[in-house]
Amino acid sequence: MRNRHFRISAISLLAAAVLVYATWQLQLHRIRMEENISVVAPRQFIQAGTVITSDMIGVVRLPRSAFRQEMLTDPQEAIGQEAAVPLGRHEPLLAWKLGRPHLHPGGGRATFHIPKSYILSISSGIRAGDRVIVYASGPDGMSRRLFEEEIVVASVKSAAWTEVEDVPSSRPFLVPMSDRQHLDEARKDATAPIDHINLNLTEEQWLELDRLCASGQARLVIAFSRSYAISAEEEDRVS
Fold first, then answer.
1. Which of 22, 122, 170, 181 could cysteine-pair with 177, CB 3.0–4.6 Å?
2. What are the pLDDT digits (tens) for 51-74?
3. Residue 99: pLDDT band by 50, 70, 90 thresholds?
4. Is pTM, for the whole model, over 0.70?
5. What is the 3-state secondary structure (H, E, C) of 166-184?
6. Computed over its alpha carbons, how large is the radius of gyration of the chain?
């Protein structure tokens, strides 16, 4: 009988200890979830294509339960990067919304507006910051790729000289997609047709292009590069 009481007491003590431990763990988890964490956020609205500087960003405090892995916690990770999409004021900054600056010419390049008379066709999916392949289309089998390297697009504009941007598409909301896929789907629709294009070219590239097109020997075919899609797939695999 004594042994039986001893076992019952031991089991009761063990059950009480387990209950206390579980309650403590639950409270600890709740405290952690209620803790705030600092994340990077813009101090003001930032347009797409803007290179981020230290005065544009700060930190905001969020409950740890609202924190997402892609949120930036160190301002240095954002400084010098370029906004790939518009960034809202005090909106936690996500890593996928930033990229290396490329809209501004560098490495001995300048931004050249390509005259409409020089152009035969432009891929409709092209947006500022994309890389494109430029072909010279000429008569009697003279067509060729004009530049071996891919060219960075500085801007694409409509006939009204407004920047051609993406408009929200209803399709991405029908199926689960990553943020990058949403961005890719959105570019299938645009605010206006592309009527003007500016490219970042070296002086030698511009002179070659101008010589061919101004003389009427060729017109340009500007094609969207596969490099963008490949990099997007690689990012999705990494994430």
1. 181
2. 889 999 999 988 887 888 899 999
3. confident
4. no
5. ECCCCHHHCCCCCHHHHHH
6. 28
Strand spans (E) along 147-210? 151-157, 196-202
The residue among 179, 196, 8, 1 whose CA lies nearest residue 94 is 179
Q: Nearest-CA neighbor of 181 among 172, 169, 190?
A: 172
Residues 51 and 150 in one domain: no
C-alpha distances (whole Å) from 181 to each of 6, 124, 236 are 64, 18, 9
In sequence order, which residues have a C-beta less than 8 Å from that of residue 180 and are 6 or more positions away?
Answer: 96, 232, 235, 236
The DSSP letter of residue 70 is T
Domain finish residue from 99, 125, 143: 99
Q: Give CA separation, 203 vs 137, 177, 199, in Å.
A: 21, 42, 12
